[in-house]
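Weekly sync, protein design subgroup
Attendees: M.S., D.O., the rotation student, P.L. (late)

Item 1: inverse folding check
M.S. brought a backbone from last month's batch and wanted to see whether the design step gives back something sensible before we order anything. D.O. pointed out we never logged the input encoding, so this time it goes straight into the notes. Structure tokens as presented (327 positions):
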């Protein structure tokens, strides 16, 4: 990941992995792209239907088209990312945009895997039972959306670590503590702990059934599904902070790729979901309502954006330091 600034890849010979891992990357990358194509198809149908006058009752035509146009663009980027991870030429893609979109994609989807599993067991709703505006969606749309999310999440979880290990081996090889700890600084770690702890504690409190910060008018939105999402967000935020601490302090000893991959995914999750939800909290399109008070929404998502950026900066600093030590 030293090339996130320079934009050049590690020479091929230093990043080789076994043939089995390469095959897994190819299959997972193509599988991710194919799965997300189903989600894209649904979103295109929704945009076309809106242009023909079929819009959910709680949205205006303009809001609904804009919302789905944004998700169409995100889907196209996600499909392209899957193809980049699968193809050999993907290692020649400039590093800065590749890392950014991989960070966002991994943050959006990989942390949703445990949520989707628990949601299926406990009766939550991973994909939602409507078209985003309170109107029932046909079953085929829900199936395509579910496959799109789950397939892309699983594909990224497999293909992305292999790709990054091949392209930036110095940042992932070896064990924690086999070189001097990365100089991230105690003050930086404390700031990160505070940024992560504030929303994580709030999400944990809501998961346990607390109601402080929730609007009485919309408190019913914090149902089983809402509490599962809050708990999942808290879990990944704490995992990310612990992973950064492991990298910074050099303990406990474990394969380096574990905390690197977890910190990358967690920081992306904090940033991506907060950056997605913050405009909703500010603009409230289509009569949008969240379970929490608007001010609470803005604060928690603002902290999520900042925490994700700080965590990624710490991770990149550690990767560059390790690269220089290896070099």
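Designed sequence read out in the meeting:
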């Amino acid at each position: 990941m030293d090339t996130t600034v320079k934009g050049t890849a590690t020479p091929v010979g230093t990043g080789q992995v076994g043939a089995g891992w390469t095959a897994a990357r190819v299959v997972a990358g193509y599988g991710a792209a194919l799965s997300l194509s189903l989600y894209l198809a649904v979103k295109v149908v929704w945009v076309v239907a809106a242009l023909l006058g079929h819009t959910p009752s709680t949205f205006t035509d303009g809001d609904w088209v804009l919302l789905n146009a944004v998700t169409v663009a995100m889907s196209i980027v996600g499909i392209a990312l899957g193809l980049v991870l699968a193809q050999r030429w993907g290692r020649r893609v400039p590093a800065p945009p590749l890392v950014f979109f991989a960070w966002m994609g991994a943050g959006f989807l990989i942390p949703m895997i445990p949520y989707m599993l628990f949601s299926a067991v406990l009766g939550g709703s991973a994909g939602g039972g409507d078209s985003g505006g309170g109107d029932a969606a046909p079953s085929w749309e829900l199936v395509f959306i579910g496959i799109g999310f789950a397939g892309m999440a699983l594909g990224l979880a497999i293909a992305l670590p292999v790709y990054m290990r091949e392209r930036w081996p110095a940042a992932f090889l070896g064990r924690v503590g086999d070189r001097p700890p990365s100089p991230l600084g105690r003050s930086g770690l404390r700031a990160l702990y505070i940024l992560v702890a504030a929303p994580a504690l709030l999400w944990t409190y809501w998961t346990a059934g607390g109601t402080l910060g929730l609007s009485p008018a919309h408190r019913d939105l914090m149902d089983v599904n809402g509490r599962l999402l809050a708990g999942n967000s808290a879990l990944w935020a704490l995992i990310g902070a612990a992973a950064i601490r492991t990298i910074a302090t050099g303990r406990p000893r474990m394969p380096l790729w574990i905390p690197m991959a977890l910190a990358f995914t967690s920081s992306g999750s904090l940033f991506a979901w907060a950056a997605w939800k913050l405009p909703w909290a500010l603009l409230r399109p289509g009569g949008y309502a969240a379970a929490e008070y608007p001010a609470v929404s803005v604060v928690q998502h603002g902290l999520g954006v900042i925490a994700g950026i700080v965590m990624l900066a710490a991770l990149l600093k550690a990767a560059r330091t390790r690269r220089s030590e290896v070099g």
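Discussion: Residues 1-13, 127-134 have pLDDT under 50 and may be disordered. DSSP finds ten helices and no strands in the chain.
Action: P.L. to compare against the previous round before Friday.
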